[in-house]
């Protein structure tokens, strides 16, 4: 048996989390470096996954597989394996985490007045912060790698716990509301996050049990193995009744739609992203939420192809509503982190749209969108976080003329924003355009409605930029320092990546394309042919 | 030879990257480096031009395939370039005027502490514009298209501390984005129809597609062109764009970027030729804009905004010509090139005047400047004669050809188009003479500015006057050279095709009529502004004048129709998101809460309410799914 690369990739941050948490409270800085080192080691393993992954057309669908028995009685196995989509998502996660650690370097330092009595403190916030981030990373990697549905479910749910503490325990510098008001807002957001996702998880659990019962009914033994179910379905051994399939689909879909989040179950996201620190906000939207859209591709389409097709009109409608609604709400925000959160809702609309239009371009574009949205939002949100940490306010109206005093900060903010509005030449343009192509080739009207997102995105990004960065310098901002070396070291590579993926996305498409072909064959769909060929064929 | 194409685009892009990443260290050499790289592009363009000239006229096309850009199933986009006489014409215009304006900016921006950034943006613009005209498929063209939009955004808002500049920059970008939706949909339609969006296969197979599809593609391309080229109804950004430094107005908002719409339509000629309805709309848009811009240009006292109105109007001529099909393409491009020279010259002249007048833009505060700025006066004057169509200068040839092509459309339409364009020509002569008289003739009308400084008008330094002189030569001679042996027609014909319409009016008659209306326009302006002193404060004016000063109420309309309802919608939705989507479920929770008093003691208040609210959302999802399927 070859080296268990996927397990190693997940285990590294898990061990890192334990080690970081164990660092004594006085050695805060050491804890930070340890966390960074483990996250970088994870990048190394992720790179090995990318290199080992075979992108040839004839290669296995799931590679780097691992399989161990776990709970025999229920057919639960420790089964891992990745297709190209999983590889891309693991790579995104691994690459983003070191930047988040770097950006949040000082976010969890104890306040100066608290520092004087360290002996009385048992809770070590700095260690905790970085350990929790690594813990989330480990669970996210496992949910991208799990091919046993029950195993997936465990990590899908378990990551809520560290996320809950990250949202509830760490926030921005207190603004006008004061320390206490901020803490109340935070715990409100954390509980809202937890309950939304928990209920989604419960619905999924019910569907999961239903699926197990159905397999136990028709096959000799019940199983949670994705590959076993796919094979059984392919060979006709497993044939779910239409209504069963639809209910099971809905159970899975609701959980993933909450995680994604899709309108109308989106309202937890602005609270969670607004109240948490910028790196945690990025962790939510760029990494954790992607498990939702990823799972739609892997489980909803793979397990329930007919029900997926049946639900397509509704899902597409909800996705379109998300695109437009998220963008309009972003326009109306006074808080810049909530603005970015609503922008993300709009972008998740594009991702879900791409997944459910069932074309190569749509699903390929949706996968690229997950990656590019992660990078663009990280760039924009982290710079916003740097700005907020300087002034102690999230309100857009507290800023103005920043480019005069901090031109590099303003410049990087603009580039992050241009990525968010999908400027051609940056990665998000390609993914957004692919989703549009994929949509339009099957549903022309939906494609045209989604195009409205192009204008709205420009509006909310540029209005944000104009209000914060241009015009006369607001009182109190005259001495605003520009980006520090650490901050620049975090943002510059993200920007380089953003542009690189816009100019030369082929390494990524090579990995993703075969997986998309497989997913399309799961749902038994082919791309519509160009009209001209149809005409010629008809003659 | 092909490999030079990538280099031609790469040089200024490299300059932009180096200047932006290099930081303050490069402050002292940045402008020189940028100008040098612009010049390198120009030299490469000339080399390629000479190479093309050496080929047979039918074989003048070079391709360069750099790499595969986005391959996803049937969707194959390449980074590949196409150099043919049409793109070559643009490349020469862009690199020559671009280099001159880099040179001019060295003097113009000398005292600006962010000069390095300015030159980085200029280089970025040059690279993006070259990409736009050299791309061999529509998706890559889109990258250049938005790239010039970005450069335009950065340069209009270059003086970001001025709220008006920041607002103008944002407005330009967003109005252009509306146009981009058009370009996006056009590419989507091409992909679903032809399975590709590369120029050659789309344009060669265009006739095979249904007319309805082609009309759709044509109208969407027109929408894109309207945004970029400031044509009605997406014209409202151009006047505000004059907030940018004047060299920017000359290069981007007069000579090159704003003409990209005309390029797009001419390039897509095969689509439009098979979609006569779309062509009609192009012609109408051109005709409306040519009058719209001219009327606005007559009323503005701000010298740059008056020139911006003129730009809009002149592009209206080009658009109209391009809408005429093979009768007009060649002349649309010919007018585009001559306009590039004389309008850039006019803007650089305006910049020179502002440079000597403490950045005053109100022409009513000028007067008598010919004595103080002889070179500016001479070069501006030559460009002025060229634009009004003074016989045997550049504008005379290119505009007459367009007017003649309009008549050649035949029938009533021909008469209408010809008439509109002659009216436009009279207005052109009127507003340009007005600018000339207000600025260079009459008595001095300037006063000390707010801080008490009296302007001391003076001639600009050599780096500024040399480009103006060179452009003045272009304004004078380009038309004559293009007309000689029909040089320009033979050069472009292999790409655009050429047809001769059936004009009810002889070619010579059109020339005489155009000259006659020009004299009328000049005389009208002289009657109003030349024979008596001009008041330093504008008289109130009649309704049309007042409306024209407000750009024919374009912003009032946009505000009433889009901005205000949009604001209400957004605010309403923010309220609803909080009260309804979040709140209905909260309300349900409260109802549950009232019913279950015991639970209340056990559970934390909002924990319960969110559990319920979540559940409500989930139920809503399931119900929606079931309902919509049932219907």
TrEMBL record, chain A:
<feature type="transmembrane region" description="Helical">
    <location>
        <begin position="408"/>
        <end position="425"/>
    </location>
</feature>
<feature type="transmembrane region" description="Helical">
    <location>
        <begin position="310"/>
        <end position="332"/>
    </location>
</feature>
<dbReference type="GO" id="GO:0015990">
    <property type="term" value="P:electron transport coupled proton transport"/>
</dbReference>
<comment type="similarity">
    <text>Belongs to the complex I subunit 4 family.</text>
</comment>
<keyword id="KW-0472">Membrane</keyword>
<feature type="domain" description="NADH:quinone oxidoreductase/Mrp antiporter transmembrane">
    <location>
        <begin position="146"/>
        <end position="452"/>
    </location>
</feature>
<keyword id="KW-0560">Oxidoreductase</keyword>
<feature type="transmembrane region" description="Helical">
    <location>
        <begin position="85"/>
        <end position="105"/>
    </location>
</feature>
<dbReference type="GO" id="GO:0016020">
    <property type="term" value="C:membrane"/>
</dbReference>
<feature type="transmembrane region" description="Helical">
    <location>
        <begin position="247"/>
        <end position="269"/>
    </location>
</feature>
<keyword id="KW-1133">Transmembrane helix</keyword>
<dbReference type="Pfam" id="PF00361">
    <property type="entry name" value="Proton_antipo_M"/>
</dbReference>
<feature type="transmembrane region" description="Helical">
    <location>
        <begin position="445"/>
        <end position="465"/>
    </location>
</feature>
<dbReference type="InterPro" id="IPR010227">
    <property type="entry name" value="NADH_Q_OxRdtase_chainM/4"/>
</dbReference>
<dbReference type="GO" id="GO:0008137">
    <property type="term" value="F:NADH dehydrogenase (ubiquinone) activity"/>
</dbReference>
<dbReference type="GO" id="GO:0042773">
    <property type="term" value="P:ATP synthesis coupled electron transport"/>
</dbReference>
<feature type="transmembrane region" description="Helical">
    <location>
        <begin position="339"/>
        <end position="358"/>
    </location>
</feature>
<feature type="transmembrane region" description="Helical">
    <location>
        <begin position="129"/>
        <end position="156"/>
    </location>
</feature>
<feature type="transmembrane region" description="Helical">
    <location>
        <begin position="193"/>
        <end position="214"/>
    </location>
</feature>
<dbReference type="InterPro" id="IPR003918">
    <property type="entry name" value="NADH_UbQ_OxRdtase"/>
</dbReference>
<feature type="transmembrane region" description="Helical">
    <location>
        <begin position="370"/>
        <end position="388"/>
    </location>
</feature>
<feature type="transmembrane region" description="Helical">
    <location>
        <begin position="31"/>
        <end position="51"/>
    </location>
</feature>
From TrEMBL, chain B:
<dbReference type="GO" id="GO:0016020">
    <property type="term" value="C:membrane"/>
</dbReference>
<feature type="transmembrane region" description="Helical">
    <location>
        <begin position="278"/>
        <end position="299"/>
    </location>
</feature>
<feature type="transmembrane region" description="Helical">
    <location>
        <begin position="6"/>
        <end position="22"/>
    </location>
</feature>
<feature type="transmembrane region" description="Helical">
    <location>
        <begin position="330"/>
        <end position="354"/>
    </location>
</feature>
<keyword id="KW-0560">Oxidoreductase</keyword>
<feature type="transmembrane region" description="Helical">
    <location>
        <begin position="375"/>
        <end position="394"/>
    </location>
</feature>
<feature type="transmembrane region" description="Helical">
    <location>
        <begin position="141"/>
        <end position="160"/>
    </location>
</feature>
<feature type="transmembrane region" description="Helical">
    <location>
        <begin position="86"/>
        <end position="106"/>
    </location>
</feature>
<keyword id="KW-1133">Transmembrane helix</keyword>
<dbReference type="InterPro" id="IPR001516">
    <property type="entry name" value="Proton_antipo_N"/>
</dbReference>
<feature type="transmembrane region" description="Helical">
    <location>
        <begin position="306"/>
        <end position="324"/>
    </location>
</feature>
<keyword id="KW-0812">Transmembrane</keyword>
<keyword id="KW-0472">Membrane</keyword>
<dbReference type="Pfam" id="PF00361">
    <property type="entry name" value="Proton_antipo_M"/>
</dbReference>
<dbReference type="GO" id="GO:0003954">
    <property type="term" value="F:NADH dehydrogenase activity"/>
</dbReference>
<feature type="domain" description="NADH-Ubiquinone oxidoreductase (complex I) chain 5 N-terminal">
    <location>
        <begin position="69"/>
        <end position="119"/>
    </location>
</feature>
<dbReference type="InterPro" id="IPR001750">
    <property type="entry name" value="ND/Mrp_TM"/>
</dbReference>
<dbReference type="GO" id="GO:0012505">
    <property type="term" value="C:endomembrane system"/>
</dbReference>
<feature type="transmembrane region" description="Helical">
    <location>
        <begin position="462"/>
        <end position="482"/>
    </location>
</feature>
<feature type="domain" description="NADH:quinone oxidoreductase/Mrp antiporter transmembrane">
    <location>
        <begin position="135"/>
        <end position="418"/>
    </location>
</feature>
<feature type="transmembrane region" description="Helical">
    <location>
        <begin position="205"/>
        <end position="227"/>
    </location>
</feature>
<dbReference type="InterPro" id="IPR003945">
    <property type="entry name" value="NU5C-like"/>
</dbReference>
């Amino acid at each position: 048996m070859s080296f268990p690369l996927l397990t190693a990739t997940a285990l590294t941050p898990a061990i890192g989390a334990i080690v970081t948490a164990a660092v004594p409270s006085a050695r805060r800085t050491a804890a930070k470096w340890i966390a960074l080192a483990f996250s970088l080691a994870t990048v190394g393993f992720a790179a090995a996954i990318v290199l080992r992954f075979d992108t040839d057309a004839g290669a296995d669908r799931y590679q780097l597989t691992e399989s161990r028995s776990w709970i025999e009685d229920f057919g639960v196995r420790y089964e891992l394996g990745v297709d190209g989509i999983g590889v891309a998502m693991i790579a995104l996660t691994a690459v983003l985490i070191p930047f988040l650690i770097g950006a949040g370097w000082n976010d969890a330092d104890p306040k100066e007045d608290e520092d004087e009595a360290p002996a009385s403190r048992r809770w070590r916030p700095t260690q905790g912060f970085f350990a929790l981030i690594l813990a989330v990373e480990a669970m996210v990697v496992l949910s991208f790698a799990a091919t046993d549905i029950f195993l997936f479910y465990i990590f899908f749910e378990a990551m809520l716990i560290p996320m809950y503490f990250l949202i509830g325990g760490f926030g921005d510098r207190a603004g006008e509301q004061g320390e206490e008001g901020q803490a109340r807002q935070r715990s409100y957001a954390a509980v809202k996050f937890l309950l939304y996702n928990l209920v989604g998880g419960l619905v999924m659990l019910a569907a999961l049990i239903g699926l197990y019962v159905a397999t136990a009914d028709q096959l000799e033994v019940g199983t949670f193995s994705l590959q076993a179910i796919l094979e059984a379905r392919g060979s006709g051994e497993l044939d779910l009744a239409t209504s069963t399939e639809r209910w099971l689909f809905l159970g899975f879909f609701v959980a993933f739609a909450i995680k994604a989040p899709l309108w109308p179950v989106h309202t937890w996201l602005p609270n969670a992203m607004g109240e948490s620190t910028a790196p945690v906000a990025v962790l939510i939207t760029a990494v954790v939420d992607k498990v939702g859209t990823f799972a739609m591709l892997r489980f909803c389409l793979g397990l329930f192809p007919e029900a997926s097709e049946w639900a397509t009109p509704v899902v597409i409608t909800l996705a379109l509503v998300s695109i437009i609604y998220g963008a309009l709400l972003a326009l109306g925000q006074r808080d810049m982190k909530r603005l970015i959160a609503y922008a993300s809702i709009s972008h998740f609309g594009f991702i879900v749209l791409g997944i459910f239009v069932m074309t190569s371009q749509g699903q390929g574009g949706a996968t690229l969108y997950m990656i590019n949205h992660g990078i663009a939002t990280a760039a924009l949100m982290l710079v916003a976080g740097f700005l907020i940490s300087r002034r102690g306010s999230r309100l857009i109206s507290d800023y103005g003329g920043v480019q005069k005093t901090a031109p590099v900060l303003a410049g990087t903010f603009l580039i992050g924003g241009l990525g968010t509005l999908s400027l051609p030449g940056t990665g998000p343009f390609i993914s957004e355009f692919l989703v549009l192509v994929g949509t339009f080739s099957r549903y022309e009207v939906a494609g045209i409605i989604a195009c409205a997102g192009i204008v709205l995105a420009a509006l909310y990004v540029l209005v944000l930029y104009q209000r914060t960065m241009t015009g006369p310098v607001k009182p109190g901002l005259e001495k605003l320092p520009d980006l520090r070396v650490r901050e620049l070291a975090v943002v510059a590579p993200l920007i380089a990546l953003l542009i690189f993926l816009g100019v030369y996305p082929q390494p990524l498409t090579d990995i993703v394309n075969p997986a998309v072909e497989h997913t399309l064959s799961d749902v038994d769909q082919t791309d519509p042919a160009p009209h001209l060929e149809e005409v010629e064929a008809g003659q | 030879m092909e490999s030079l194409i990538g280099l031609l685009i790469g040089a200024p892009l490299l300059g932009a990257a180096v200047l932006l990443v290099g930081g303050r260290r490069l402050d002292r050499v940045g402008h020189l480096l940028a100008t040098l790289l612009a010049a390198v592009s120009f030299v490469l363009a000339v080399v390629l031009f000479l190479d093309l000239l050496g080929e047979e006229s039918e074989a003048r096309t070079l391709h360069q395939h750099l790499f595969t850009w986005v391959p996803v199933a049937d969707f194959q986009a390449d980074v590949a370039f196409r150099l043919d006489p049409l793109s070559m014409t643009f490349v020469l215009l862009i690199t020559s005027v671009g280099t001159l304006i880099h040179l001019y900016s060295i003097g113009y921006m000398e005292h600006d502490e962010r000069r390095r950034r300015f030159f980085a943006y200029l280089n970025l613009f040059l690279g993006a514009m070259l990409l736009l005209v050299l791309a061999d498929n529509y998706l890559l063209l889109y990258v250049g298209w938005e790239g010039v939009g970005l450069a335009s955004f950065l340069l209009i808002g270059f003086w970001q501390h001025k709220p008006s500049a920041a607002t103008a920059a944002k407005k330009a970008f967003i109005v252009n984005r509306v146009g981009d939706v058009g370009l996006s949909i056009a590419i989507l339609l091409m992909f679903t129809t032809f399975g590709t969006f590369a120029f050659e296969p789309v344009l060669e197979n265009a006739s095979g597609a249904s007319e309805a599809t082609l009309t759709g593609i044509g109208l969407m391309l027109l929408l894109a062109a309207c945004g970029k080229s400031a044509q009605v109804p997406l014209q409202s950004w151009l006047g505000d764009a004059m907030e940018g430094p004047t060299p920017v107005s000359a290069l981007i908002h007069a000579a090159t970027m704003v003409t990209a719409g005309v390029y797009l339509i001419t390039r897509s000629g095969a689509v439009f030729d098979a979609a006569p309805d779309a062509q009609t709309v192009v012609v109408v848009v051109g005709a409306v804009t040519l009058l719209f811009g001219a009327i606005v240009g007559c009323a503005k006292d701000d010298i740059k905004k008056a020139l911006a109105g003129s730009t809009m109007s002149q592009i209206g001529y080009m658009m109209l010509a391009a809408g005429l099909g093979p009768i007009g393409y060649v002349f649309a491009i010919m007018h585009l090139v001559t306009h590039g020279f004389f309008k850039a010259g006019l803007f650089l002249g305006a910049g020179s005047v502002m440079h000597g007048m403490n950045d005053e833009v109100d022409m009513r505060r000028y007067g008598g400047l010919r004595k103080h700025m002889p070179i500016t006066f001479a070069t501006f004057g030559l460009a002025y004669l060229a634009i009004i169509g003074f016989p045997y200068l550049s504008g005379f040839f290119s505009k007459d050809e367009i007017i003649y092509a309009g008549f050649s459309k035949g029938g009533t339409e021909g008469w209408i188009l010809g008439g509109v364009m002659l009216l436009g020509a009279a207005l052109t002569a009127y507003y340009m003479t007005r600018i000339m008289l207000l600025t260079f003739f009459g008595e001095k009308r300037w006063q000390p500015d707010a801080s008490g400084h009296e302007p001391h008008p003076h001639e600009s330094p050599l780096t500024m006057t040399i480009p103006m002189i060179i452009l003045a030569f272009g304004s004078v001679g380009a038309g004559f050279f293009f007309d000689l042996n029909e040089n320009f027609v033979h050069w472009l014909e292999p790409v655009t095709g050429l047809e001769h319409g059936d004009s009810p009016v002889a070619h010579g008659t059109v020339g005489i009529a155009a000259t006659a209306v020009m004299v009328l326009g000049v005389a009208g302006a002289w009657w109003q502004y030349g024979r008596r002193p001009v008041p330093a404060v504008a008289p109130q004016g009649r309704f049309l004048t007042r409306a024209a000063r407000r750009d024919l109420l374009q912003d009032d309309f946009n505000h009433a129709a889009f901005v205000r309802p949009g604001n209400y919608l957004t605010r309403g939705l923010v309220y609803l998101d909080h009260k309804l989507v979040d709140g209905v479920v909260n309300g349900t929770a409260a109802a549950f809460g009232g019913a279950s008093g015991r639970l209340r003691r056990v559970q934390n208040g909002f924990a319960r309410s969110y559990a319920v609210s979540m559940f409500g959302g989930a139920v809503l999802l399931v119900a929606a799914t079931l309902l919509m399927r049932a219907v």
